[in-house]
Amino acid sequence: MKMKELLLFLSCVLCVSADGQHGDIKIIGCSDSYGELMFGLDGEELAYADFNKQEMIYPQPPFIDPMTYQEGTYESSVANLQVCRANMQNSRKGMKDFPLERDAPSGVMIYTRDEVEFGEKNYLICYVTGFYPAPVNVSWTKNKEKVTQGSSINVPYINKDGTFTQISRLDFTPQQGDVYSCKVEHLALTEPATKFYEVEASARSDPGVGPSVFCGVGLTLGLVGVAAGTFFLVKGNECS
Ligand SMILES: *[C@@H]1O[C@H](CO)[C@@H](O)[C@H](O)[C@H]1NC(C)=O
């Protein structure tokens, strides 16, 4: 645990010193069957328009004191979506029904948010990336039964290469022997891509001594090296 905190801290220092800028993003996208309007900051979702619930959704947790957008943002999102669809129709006419590019997901990963402890609430994450167009459908099973509650998915996030990423999350409490799966459907997949997660195989009842042992051995070797170096340095100076 201590190691983890240390690494987290180090990576924070590195990223702060490497780059003091923030990245703001607004995504407007549409297809015949889907539309998206999302505001993000530094890779996080700040807000998106939910066209079914007909309102803006602010997915950030309350403890970070999330910002909200002014009234009318949802209505202007609807207008933006209409503009997007109109532009799409014009492009279709102008470009004589150009074929739709299709990329199946290049990666599907399933993992837990926290280290697994039996009986401790946790989250399963299904991370899907590299697909075009958006979105994917993600569904979960527990011991082959469909899970209907406790899952959520974020809106598609655009990657640098123009493909998309979506992340689905499932509340779960690890019990020995349970098998979960996340099934991903996409336009470019002839059959769904499914990833399995088996609690038994990956749970550790003991947080693991591995990291501490490696750290101890590494540190010892390092100190021995420094001592040897100092020894030869001193010896070398004595000779000359
Ligand atoms: C995703 O689910 C919706 C609603 O069930 C369905 O209309 C759509 O065809 C699905 N998309 C894919 C790629 O399977």
Automatic annotation (TrEMBL):
Keyword Lyase: no
Membrane-topology annotation of the record: Single-pass type I membrane protein
InterPro entries the UniProt entry points to: Ig-like_dom, Ig-like_dom_sf, Ig-like_fold, Ig/MHC_CS, Ig_C1-set, MHC/Immunoglobulin, MHC_I/II-like_Ag-recog, MHC_II_a/b_N
SMART domains: IGc1, MHC_II_alpha
Keyword vocabulary terms for this entry: Adaptive immunity, Disulfide bond, Glycoprotein, Immunity, Immunoglobulin domain, Membrane, MHC II, Signal, Transmembrane, Transmembrane helix
Residue ranges crossing the lipid bilayer per the database entry: 209-234
Source domain of life: Eukaryota
Chief site of localization: membrane
A family per Pfam: MHC_II_alpha
All residue ranges annotated as the Ig-like domain in the record: 105-202
Leader sequence residues: 1-18
GO biological process per UniProt: adaptive immune response; antigen processing and presentation of peptide or polysaccharide antigen via MHC class II
GO cellular component entries: MHC class II protein complex
Subcellular location: Membrane
Similarity-based family: Belongs to the MHC class II family.
Protein name: H-2 class II histocompatibility antigen, A-U alpha chain-like
Biological source species: Haplochromis burtoni
